[in-house]
Amino acid sequence: MYASREDIGYDFGDDSKVRSKPIKPNPNIDGGWAWMIVLSSFLVHILIMGSQMALGILNMEWLEEFNQSRGLTAWVSSLSMGITLIVGPFIGLFISMCGCRRTAIIGGVLNALGWILSAYAANVHYLFLTFGVTAGIGSGMVYLPAVVMVGQYFQKRRALAQGLSTTGTGFGAFLMTALLKYLCAEFGWRNAMFIQGAISLNLCVCGALMRPLSPKDLREKHVVRSDSEENRRKALSHSTETIKSNGGLGEEPEKKEEAANEEVLGSVQHIEIGGKSGSGRSMYGLRLFKTVSQLTVTVRKGFALWYSSYFGAASLFTNRVFVAFVIWALFAYSSFVIPFIHLPEIVKQYNLSRQDNVFPLTSIIAIVHIFGKVILGIISDLPCISTWNVFLMANFTLVTCILTLPLMQTYVGLAVVCALIGFSSGYFSLMPVVTEDLVGTKHLANAYGIIICANGISALFGPPFAGWIYDITQKYDFSFYIAGLLYMVGIIFLLIQPCVQKKQPREKSTEEAQV
């Protein structure tokens, strides 16, 4: 349509030093343990994103329990969804220092704690802190590692792997909606949240499955990627030279940092060898000092990588297509979240509760969402298909559905629109793929952290805004219209920048031909 995956790629110098020598493919890349990573990510999406998509059930319980306005009550769900995504850039720092596995395990404990503490809520404001903030931060600490690990373990079938793992959102929305309905009916919403907190401890198991790749494995993946994307790098020579003229992504500072770190560890080892003849207490002190030194080195390296990605001479924000992608994310996610939070009430207003109880509209979105992610992932992996174009077409379909939904006042009409929303929103599985094509594997954690942070801001303000509009107009129609128009603005940004990005290398090649 406008630009292919190759056209929008952006080289940060990750593969500049890679030689095109034949290597033995690693069995863990695109196979082996990689499918355990997909399983882990799938379960994470069920427990986190699926649970959040089912919060409309709890939202109705909170409205009855605390008797607050719809706008104020919707902030509980929005805080949980929004903070899960907004903390992405800071979780990227945790990943750089501690790795995906430790970050995810800590997040699993924090998420379960948030659910359990929320069972004792005395008012809505208490839920803001326990469920919105505590459970939200815990969710973010598990969600980002789950996405990043799939990107690290897959090269040839990235879109399919991300599609399979993120179908957990659809399965989770369907399962958690039914589970929370049953638990609230049988035990009350407080006990339902307590039980859900216990279930969320399984996130720690998912985190334990996130076995990190060795540096050697990552280098081999970069070599494979370098060979398969030779044409992309040539097409983007103009962009690459622009970055190099501004200074590489902190390569020289990184080398100096590594040299300083090696010097610190070397001095510690020298002291340790010289002190072997000392007392046991001295040896214990040396070991403690060595551990602290290694931890300091790890923190410094992680922070340096995180800092250079955001504030370095060639930070992620020098990529104009990536900036357009961030602007799109600021408007897009609320259009998907608003139906999940407010559809139960819309159904109640239209007197469609009997049909909805048989087959909830949110469950229709969730089920079709599963097929949408897998099918769009398979299509995007075809060699003749551009992931970028599939991504744009799915966005156009979704924004059309959002603008059409208020016009439907029958169950069949709403069900058809909800099915289209579910299928087209399957583009979420393509977001990590598009992000990796833009910035490379090395910067995927930080870049995707920024994208989901922008999504989080959208999710944070979307549902309360819809509730506020309802409190004024007593209708949800204007909420969907405004959300759809803002979403369209974000899509326009995506359409403009790839054209500019694609045009620049052509102009340069013409000038060279004249010379």
Describe this structure in words.
With 515 residues, this protein is an all-alpha fold. The protein has two domains: 209 residues, Growth Hormone, Chain: A; 187 residues, Up-down Bundle (Growth Hormone, Chain: A), CATH 1.20.1250. 80% of the residues lie in helices and 0% in strands. It has 22 helices and no strands. The longest helix has 43 residues. The chain is globular, with a radius of gyration of 24 Å. The relative contact order is 0.16. The N terminus and C terminus are likely disordered.
- Separation, N- and C-terminal Cα atoms: 32 Å
**What is the name of the CATH class of the largest domain?**
Mainly Alpha
**H/E order of the elements?**
HHHHHHHHHHHHHHHHHHHHHH
SSE-based structural type = mainly alpha
Which terms would index this structure?
515 residues, mainly alpha, Growth Hormone, Chain: A, 80% helix, 0% strand, globular, disordered N terminus
In short:
This protein is 80% helix and 0% strand.
How would the blueprint of this fold be written?
Layout: H1 5-8, H2 34-53, H3 55-66, H4 70-86, H5 88-98, H6 100-118, H7 124-153, H8 158-200, H9 202-208, H10 215-228, H11 230-235, H12 237-246, H13 251-274, H14 280-311, H15 320-349, H16 353-358, H17 361-380, H18 387-404, H19 411-424, H20 431-439, H21 444-473, H22 477-514
Helix pairs in contact: 2-7, 2-8, 2-9, 3-4, 3-8, 3-15, 4-7, 4-21, 5-6, 5-7, 5-14, 5-21, 6-7, 6-8, 6-9, 7-21, 8-17, 13-14, 15-21, 15-22, 17-19, 18-19, 18-22, 20-21, 21-22
